[in-house]
């Protein structure tokens, strides 16, 4: 197949592109920045917010993989960039023959205040009434997912939504999910709970499997490695000195800071109660649905050599 990866020059996009090429597919990347080491990858440079001819990127394309999203800025800018960029990309797709879409969403779309001790694809997600006290990234990814699902119904497209956990591997450690770093000290919140992570090679394989699946039924899947490594153990692998902090203490500190300031979303992320929940709430999970639906295995179980 010929696959278009919107936002494909980034960390995850590079790994997905490499995995697709190894699987025998051809790849076109649509991004603001071009890669100097693209090799066999075809590249189109464009801004989703301003380019008037986005449909040209879909010429001959069988599947769109949509990774593009803003990562920095205030809430208004994150929402505008991510949601409006997605709207314009999908409007362009609707004028072409491409009818399959794989969206990279996020586990930030879950309403972690309502999630219990176990999280899966049926866990409560954010609603319009519960988004206001969250950071802009969580809001933008939630609105993006709503928009994509609405457009899919409108145009009768085949949709797969993947919600990866925090990525790590190939030089990236994802340590922000552990807690705040102070100089050489790594604060580890909820140290005995599993580290909510997925290796970038495992995530890339999930996208390849989603691209190759034959069913056109909508599918939503969390993408996580097995819950076998605790946050304390992972911190020991990627950081030096570790300081444990119970989750309850972290929440108390964040709630106190929020009460004293009266503006929780203006606080640093590690002092926002809803953000502390989203990153550090102790939960367990299973990747059984991912394994079953896509015949997926995490990196450490696969026999072929891992990337990098």
Question: Topology, please?
Answer:
Layout: E1 2-6, H1 11-22, E2 26-31, E3 42-45, E4 63-66, H2 75-94, E5 100-104, H3 136-155, E6 158-164, E7 166-168, E8 181-182, E9 185-189, E10 197-199, H4 200-212, E11 219-223, H5 231-238, E12 241-245, H6 247-261, H7 273-280, H8 288-294
Parallel strand pairs: 1-2, 1-4, 2-3, 4-5, 5-6, 6-11, 7-10, 9-12
Antiparallel strand pairs: 8-9
Labels describing this entry:
three-stranded mixed beta sheet, alpha/beta, Rossmann fold, 18% strand, 12 strands, seven-stranded parallel beta sheet, 308 residues
Explain the overall architecture.
- The protein contains 8 helices and 12 strands.
- With 308 residues, the chain is an alpha/beta fold.
- It has a domain at 2-167 and 196-225 and 284-301: 3-Layer(aba) Sandwich (Rossmann fold).
- It is globular, with a radius of gyration of 19 Å.
- The mean pLDDT is 92.
